[in-house]
Amino acid sequence: MRDEEHFGRKIVCGHMFPVSGIVPGQKWQSSSGNIVTVQAVKGDWVEYAWTTGEGHMEHEKDSFSFQCRYCLIVEES
After folding, report:
1. How far apart (Å, rounded) are the C-alpha atoms in residues 15 and 1?
2. Could you read off the pLDDT of 24-69 as tens digits, one per residue?
3. By residue range, what is the domain housing residue 33?
4. How many CB atoms lie within 10 A of CB 67?
5. For the chain, how many structural domains are there in total?
6. HSE-CB for 45 with a 13 A CA cutoff
């Protein structure tokens, strides 16, 4: 596990958290800098949301796929 700074935020890279380590309210960042917020974790599924110019968006992925797409934000500058 390592942390890196991307888009002015420190993120955790190269690590797969157990499902129990993904909790509602956490903010995660994509490689393009977009931020999503975890809404719920149900079994192995992560429900998350973000806001775009089109409004509030929601989606879900299994925890592995979610962590392949997003990195946990541990500090914002």
Report:
1. 5
2. 999 999 999 999 999 999 999 999 999 999 999 999 999 999 999 9
3. 2-76
4. 20
5. 1
6. 5
Q: Is 19 helix (H, G, I), strand (E, B) or coil?
A: helix
Which residue type sits at 24? P
> How many CB atoms lie under 10 A from the CB of residue 36?
22
Residues 6+ apart with CB under 8 A from 21: none
Contacts of 65 (CB under 8 A, 6+ apart): none
Q: Identify the H or E element spanning 36.
A: strand 35-42
Tell me, what CATH number does 23's domain have?
A: 2.30.30
Cβ–Cβ < 8 Å for 21, 39: no
